[in-house]
């Protein structure tokens, strides 16, 4: 067994090896030595499970190529070969893992600021690696020492899979017969600037209006996090200025896609989930659709009406992917604009979701606002974070305040309270920060405003 790094403690490693991935400040929490050891640990774990090769990709952050190479060297030290696919979106890495049937590692910190980087890991076939399925083992070895390997080192080869990725997506969604559309896209200086031209650039029916397509991990224009409304402002204005039929915004590693209609109004990810579920159920009658517990209630209602089977799950990609595999679901959607597809190795792909949206819009004469109106039934708060010292105590106070009006209270993920007027809310404590996250939904805007005001008065007292 190799010597443990004396400067590493269980606490310092736990701050970086999180529930779903590895993520931290470059130079302070993550450096070449650290990711090299992650590579050796992951390589040893995958070798013990029978793998002989790992595929590695990275985003546009300045630190990504160097860190990815250090990780690859660590994997090779365990006797496994590495296929380095270079610049890639996270779903492009999942594609490579799925098609090549190899474990994968994607270097990205997604929507986090430029000073951060990290690693998303998966087993062969893009199967997730989470805290309970490998990350805890890796974290322990980063403190105690990574077991050595006495055999020959693996080799590193390079392979470009971008064109194959684009072709695969077009096999899943036929865009050839749709009406011409002008599509405004804000790549946020992230990997959408790499994948959108490959997937949509040569289309005879789409005119792509590009915004911030230059790959720049310093994010000079705005954070690559479209979940925050302030980062959609430029796209909203761009849609109006260009007269686009629809707008798409991708996060930093382009695994999430957000939609803006022709008026520049944001479309709820729940509405996108409903639309894609509708399309998937048309191809797969009676199929199962996954939705997390803070997705709009409109989604399970719609799925049921269409003859499908809705399955509710916790928030987080490892839970969604596990449910996808267990139930054979054809599709899954989250409020955060992660969309999962059985035909895409049960993995999430913002680009594939975007193609479904374009196919639906291009197959109708309706403007985007009317198309999505069919999938919007309620008013939602969006996710509202509050800094609290004692999240369990504040949650208990809120639940007690609504006890007389509650028709159901469950604790699948945090606490979800359903109310007699059809409203509901969920309170979840962050795993990593002193935050309490509120998501709520009501039949109309007035009731959602009143509900949120009442809850926050207790949470922030």
Automatic annotation (TrEMBL):
The lineage of its organism: Bacteria, Bacillati, Actinomycetota, Actinomycetes, Mycobacteriales. It comes from Williamsia phyllosphaerae. Belongs to the phosphohexose mutase family. Pfam families: PGM_PMM_I, PGM_PMM_II, PGM_PMM_III, PGM_PMM_IV. Residues 383-456 form the Alpha-D-phosphohexomutase C-terminal domain. Keywords: Isomerase, Magnesium, Metal-binding, Phosphoprotein. The keyword Plastid does not apply. SUPFAM superfamilies: Phosphoglucomutase, C-terminal domain, Phosphoglucomutase, first 3 domains. Residues 17-132, 164-264, 272-378 form the Alpha-D-phosphohexomutase alpha/beta/alpha domain. Its cofactor is Mg(2+). This is Phosphomannomutase/phosphoglucomutase. InterPro entries: A-D-PHexomutase_a/b/a-I, A-D-PHexomutase_a/b/a-I/II/III, A-D-PHexomutase_a/b/a-II, A-D-PHexomutase_a/b/a-III, A-D-PHexomutase_C, A-D-PHexomutase_C_sf, Alpha-D-phosphohexomutase_SF.
